[in-house]
Specification:
30% helix; Glyco_hydro_65_C; nine-stranded antiparallel beta sheet; Beta-galactosidase, Chain A, domain 5; Maltose phosphorylase, domain 3; four-stranded antiparallel beta sheet; Protein-glucosylgalactosylhydroxylysine glucosidase; 6-hairpin_glycosidase_sf; alpha+beta
Length: 670
């Protein structure tokens, strides 16, 4: 790999702030490099608002030191192509390399290897010390030792406090290779590698199976290679390449690395998926990254990218929401409404676990955000099985019922109102008719109606009636959407809110109104607000072909990307969530939906590219649409689309590319 490789991040020193160290994560396990704890997906401890990811002590938090060497040359590298972090010590006569990764296909396994290699003809032993903070105890788990297994130590235990009274307390089983205080390369040896494995699972059987599988791969010398192969296949399948400024390409590869680390591998239908929190699985201990809870960040900000590149993983995210439907029904009942109200913050059960009551009570747009992810999935895949057999329809229906019961008829305006909410802009609460919330409710009801028809089910009349008659505030004089009833222009806003009506909501409006919304809210949006905001302004300006304005919004994201490992922070002052996948999701949407102009509609995937000046080419290797895979290459001169795979069971009619001129080009495989 050449030094200029945009997918390899190397540094000679680590950032001062340990939160900015890179994460190594699979769908089930995550840690930050050199940290003494790891987390297992779905394992939370603590009641209600206190529930947080349970800290599991991590044997992987070890660090090499060269004894006696006067400050040897050190380097630290995150390689996004191999999904591996490494630390190298370069001494006069040898190199020592420590590699760390979360195995992509064996999701219950994390591995660490240390290699010492002699560089000269010397014959003296070479020793490297290992510093480890590991102590086999936890503030969140009642851990006890079990018998050793195949040379590994074993501990297991339950979380201390269930999320809801009488609820489940998951058990964690961990096996790990004991860590010596030092490693020595014998005088007669040229090179040697030591493997340290950690297996974590919900059952003793799974932990042992994963540990054994890791041992036999390690014995064959192919443990790391098997991980790299699985990870590289994922990166290939989700490949996005740009010709443009280096910083933009590095940001792109960083975002793909951290976001794809969070999704389930292709061949793991048996492993339950537990959703993606704003800072991912590596973060979320008590007091950090919103305790590892799942928000609309997953469904609105991360999901669309995953759907376009990897629909099977998108389906797993939706199944997490289906599994928490009962909790959502209880939330609605407790607030006096029908149907299901998804929590502002969700953990294992779907019950509201936000520590502050106001968000759970008022920031209700999240329920529509969840349903919109289902709608986009259905439009992109036409997968009726999710809705007919796997619980999707019950969720759609419950959300529609919730919105109907949450509205009130206004005699005066002859429209339905939704009162007393907090919009996405959290600087305002207890407002009536949030434009975003109400437009989202309308979209939920329209989708529920369409879905019922596709499934040949009766459609309740009130769904269509309320969708038609819900108020979405609009100022006829200024031709823009006020954020809520009584919003006065110029009033400060925390983050992207009304601009989301244009994208992702695609609420019907003229280009003039779209422009007015952008111009009205851009200057009053808090510059210290969360990172995903600027990407949605960028998408808006790209829609209007205002390329410079789009670029200047996108550039604001770079102050949230921390060197040297391209870890995002939520707010540019460094506060908020770290490894902020939400911001990365927004950034990727600018590339995958903004630059391409892709829009997912009921009948088609629209495209209408627009590039800022510095970008000359964009290639997305496999866009998934209706079971087909498309390779899309866009340059300033032309667009090429090639079907690289067709689905076995999709209808016989091939895809067609339709131009504005009305010309149609059928797309067959190849």
């Amino acid at each position: 790999m050449a030094h200029g490789d945009p997918g390899v991040f190397t540094a000679t020193a680590l950032p001062e702030d340990p939160r900015l160290l890179p994460t190594v994560t699979s769908a089930f396990l995550g840690t930050r490099v050199f940290r003494d704890i790891l987390h297992a997906a779905g394992v939370y401890s603590g009641a209600a608002g206190d529930t947080h990811r349970a800290d599991v002590p991590s044997p992987l938090g070890l660090r090499m030191a060269a004894p006696g060497a006067r400050s040897p040359a050190e380097s630290f590298t995150l390689n996004t192509w191999t999904g591996t972090f490494s630390h190298t010590i370069q001494s006069p006569g040898y190199t020592a390399t420590h590699q760390l990764y979360a195995h992509h296909s064996l999701v219950h396994l994390m591995a660490s290897s240390i290699t010492i290699r002699r560089l000269d003809g010397s014959t003296h032993p070479i020793t490297v010390q290992l510093r480890s903070l590991f102590v086999p105890q936890s503030q969140d788990l009642d851990l006890r030792p079990g018998p050793d297994f195949q040379g590994a130590h074993y501990i297991y235990g339950q979380t201390l406090v269930p999320e809801v009274e009488g609820g489940p307390r998951p058990t964690v089983h961990m096996l790990w290779t004991p860590i010596p205080q030092s490693l020595t390369l014998g005088g007669e040896e040229r090179e040697r590698r030591w493997e340290f494995l950690t297996a974590v699972a919900g059952s003793e059987e799974e932990a042992k199976r994963s540990y054994s599988a890791g041992l036999s791969l390690a014995a064959a010398g192919s443990l790391h290679r098997s991980h790299v192969r699985a990870w590289a296949a994922l990166r290939r399948g989700c490949s996005v390449e740009l010709d443009g400024p280096l910083a933009l390409r590095q940001a792109l590869h960083g975002c793909l690395y951290y976001l794809l680390s969070a999704v389930p591998p292709r061949d793991s239908p048996g492993v339950l998926f537990h959703g993606i929190s704003p800072g991912g699985l590596s973060n979320g201990t008590r007091g950090e990254d919103y305790w590892g809870h799942v928000f609309w960040d997953q469904d609105t900000w991360m999901f669309p990218n995953i759907l376009l590149l990897y629909p099977e993983a998108a389906r797993a995210i939706l199944q997490y929401r289906i599994r928490t439907l009962e909790g959502a029904r209880r939330n609605a009942r407790e607030q006096g409404y029908e149907g299901a109200k998804f929590p502002w913050e969700s953990a294992a059960t779907g019950r509201e676990v936000c520590p502050e009551e106001i968000y759970g009570a008022q920031e209700i747009h999240v329920t529509g955000d969840v349903l919109m992810a289902f709608e986009q999935y259905y439009c992109t895949t036409q997968d009726q099985k999710l809705f007919r057999e796997d619980g999707g329809w019950e969720l759609v229906e419950a959300v529609a019922q919730y919105w109907c019961s949450r509205m009130m008829w206004s005699e005066e305006e002859q429209l339905y109102h939704i009162r007393g909410v907090m919009p996405p802009d959290e600087y305002h609460s207890q407002v009536d008719n949030s434009a975003y919330t109400n437009a989202m409710a309308r979209r939920s009801l329209n989708f529920a109606t369409d879905m019922a028809r596709d499934l040949l089910l009766p459609v309740p009349e009130e769904w269509e009636d309320r969708a038609r008659k819900i108020k979405v505030p609009f100022d006829e004089e200024r031709k823009y959407h006020p954020e809520y009833d009584g919003y006065t222009p110029g009033e400060p806003v925390k983050q992207a809110d009304v601009v989301l009506l244009g994208f992702p909501l695609m609420h019907p409006m003229s280009a003039e109104v779209r422009r007015n919304d952008l111009e009205m809210y851009e200057p009053v949006t808090d510059p210290a607000g969360p990172a995903m905001t600027w990407s949605m302004f960028a998408v808006g300006w790209l829609e209007l072909k205002e390329l410079q304005r789009a670029w200047s919004q996108l550039e604001k994201c770079f102050s949230n990307i921390m060197e040297p490992f391209k870890v995002w922070v939520e707010n540019s002052d460094g506060s908020g969530a770290v490894n902020f996948l939400t911001g990365m999701g927004g950034f990727l949407q600018v590339i995958l939906f903004g630059f391409t102009g892709f829009r997912i509609t009921r009948s088609s995937l629209l495209f209408d590219p627009a590039f800022p000046d510095d970008i000359t080419k964009l290639k997305v290797s496999s866009v998934s649409y209706l079971g087909n895979k498309l390779e899309v290459t866009i340059t300033r001169e032309e667009i090429t689309m090639e079907v690289t795979e067709t689905s076995q069971d999709s209808p016989a009619s091939p895809l067609e590319a339709v131009l504005e001129s009305g010309q149609r080009f059928p797309l067959w495989e190849g």
